[in-house]
From TrEMBL:
Pathway: Cofactor biosynthesis; riboflavin biosynthesis; 5-amino-6-(D-ribitylamino)uracil from GTP: step 1/4. One of its GO terms (biological process) is riboflavin biosynthetic process. Coiled coil: none annotated. Keywords: GTP-binding, Hydrolase, Metal-binding, Nucleotide-binding, Riboflavin biosynthesis, Zinc. Signal peptide: none annotated. SUPFAM superfamilies: RibA-like. Its EC number is 3.5.4.25. It catalyses: GTP + 4 H2O = 2,5-diamino-6-hydroxy-4-(5-phosphoribosylamino)-pyrimidine + formate + 2 phosphate + 3 H(+). This is GTP cyclohydrolase-2. Binds 1 zinc ion per subunit. The active site is at D132, R134. GTP binds at R55, V56, H57, S58, E59, Q76, E98, G99, R100, T120, T155, K160. Belongs to the GTP cyclohydrolase II family.
Length: 213
């Protein structure tokens, strides 16, 4: 029997988590190397082999909790949970890698540089970081815990799809999450599209197949 290659975190415990949209089950994991606590919100039977509607969401305290309009994270988090609730089945992984992996204080430093004219990528580089420091390796043992192999992934980020496919998951569909473009984040979203390859163009509504409009 091969050694466990992904022994980088442990499943710890679970509880019911009622939200405005559905009652999820909240699962807690602890990462060995850092002690960071990562979460999975699960609805329905996701272990039955059918592709699972999924969101891999990286922590954004300012956007997820403090209602910041500098980014689209809070709206993406809510939008993903609403969509999972509407389908009655899915998983949201909440990874504690704040600020594309640079941490909260450094993200605030980066915001300050952006107020002086840098864009989000330039600010990270000026602080000595890569444009995106996130590591999706955690996703593998978390999803394997639930026996999930195929995803319908809610994301605008093609690099996230590539990362998950390299980890061995099948991404059978990309579900766009284009929400909360506003006067404060339009430059940020444009930079993510231009420099990080995010797909920010809304998908046109499918024309009614029966020809009736
Ligand atoms: Zn954010």
């Amino acid at each position: 029997m091969p050694a466990v290659p992904d022994d980088i975190l442990d499943y710890t415990t679970s509880c019911a988590l009622p939200t405005p949209w559905a009652q999820f089950t909240l699962h807690a994991f602890v990462e060995h190397a850092t002690g960071k606590e990562h979460l999975a919100m699960v609805l329905g039977d996701i272990s039955n082999g059918e592709p699972v509607l999924a969101r891999v969401h990286s922590e954004c305290l300012t956007g997820d909790v403090l209602f910041s309009q500098r980014c689209d994270c809070g709206a993406q988090l809510e939008g993903a949970l609403r969509r999972i609730a509407a389908e009655g089945r899915g998983v949201l992984l909440y990874l504690r890698q704040e600020g594309r992996g640079i941490g909260l204080v450094n993200k605030i430093r980066a915001y300050r540089l952006q107020e002086a004219g840098a864009d989000t990528v330039e600010a990270n580089l000026q602080l000595g970081f890569h444009a995106d420091q996130r590591n999706y390796g955690l996703v593998k043992p978390m999803l394997e815990h639930f026996k999930v192999r195929a995803l319908r992934l809610m994301t605008n980020n093609p690099r996230k799809i590539d990362a998950l496919e390299k980890l061995g998951f099948s991404v059978t569909e990309r579900v766009p999450l284009i929400v909360n473009r506003n006067a404060f984040n339009t430059g940020y979203l444009d930079t993510k599209a231009a420099k990080l390859g995010h797909m920010m163009t809304p998908v046109e509504e499918a024309v009614a197949e029966d020809g009736e409009l």
